[in-house]
Amino acid sequence: VTDNVDQAPSGQARSDFITEVIPGIRIDGNGAHAKLHLDYQMDNLIYARDSSRNNLQNQLSAFGSLEAIENFFFVDARAAITQEAISPFGPRPTDNTSISQNRTETRTYQVSPYIRGRIADSADYLVRYDYTDQRSKSDAAGDSQVGQFTARLSGLTRLTTLSWTVEAI
């Protein structure tokens, strides 16, 4: 029950009775060459006074890693679905049940294949590609796709406390 479902100014507030049904699933797995974590919730909001406001809000936090070729080729992946404010200057919803035009669902996916290894027992190398795709349900929030290569070479010197690293992005 809320006395101000729209987060309206004093004198314009409207009350409502809201039912939330939130099914979810959580999976955690650890294998010899793979790891997975997935936590998903589907928040179904049902408004008693105005059924046109009924909606579904997704929440996801997932990541996984795979050692595709032992001690050489790896793949990391992440996915997230969140409910975010579109503008920092607009009204900020206090919880998922508050009606707000300043909220949007954002989906972010990231995949990162990489190789790593050792050269002649003197240096370690890493070559990684990160790709991130972010999408929003609101046209006001904007979408983005970013790809980035990283290469690193590092090693030790004969002095035990001195090491070196070269990195290119």
Describe it.
It is a single chain. This protein has 169 residues and is an all-beta fold. It is built from no helices and nine strands. It has strands at 18-21, 24-30, 34-47, 55-69, 73-85, 103-119, 123-136, 144-156, 163-168. Strands 1, 2, 3, 4, 5, 6, 7, 8 and 9 form a nine-stranded antiparallel sheet that branches. A hairpin with a 3-residue loop joins β4 and β5. The protein is elongated.
Structural classification: mainly beta
Strand content: over 45%
State the helicity in percent bands: under 10%
**Through-space gap between termini:** 52 Å
Q: Catalogue the unreliable spans.
A: none
DSSP E strands, number? 9
> Averaged pLDDT, please?
90
Largest sheet: 9 strands, antiparallel
Question: Helix segment count?
Answer: 0
Question: How much is the radius of gyration in Å?
Answer: 23 Å
Shape: elongated
**H/E order of the elements?**
EEEEEEEEE
Q: How would you concisely characterize the structure shown here?
A:
The protein has no helices and nine strands. With 169 residues, it is mainly β.
What's the arrangement of secondary structure elements?
Elements: E1 18-21, E2 24-30, E3 34-47, E4 55-69, E5 73-85, E6 103-119, E7 123-136, E8 144-156, E9 163-168
Antiparallel strand pairs: 1-3, 2-3, 3-4, 4-5, 5-6, 6-7, 7-8, 8-9
Note the main attributes of this structure:
169 residues; nine-stranded antiparallel sheet; elongated
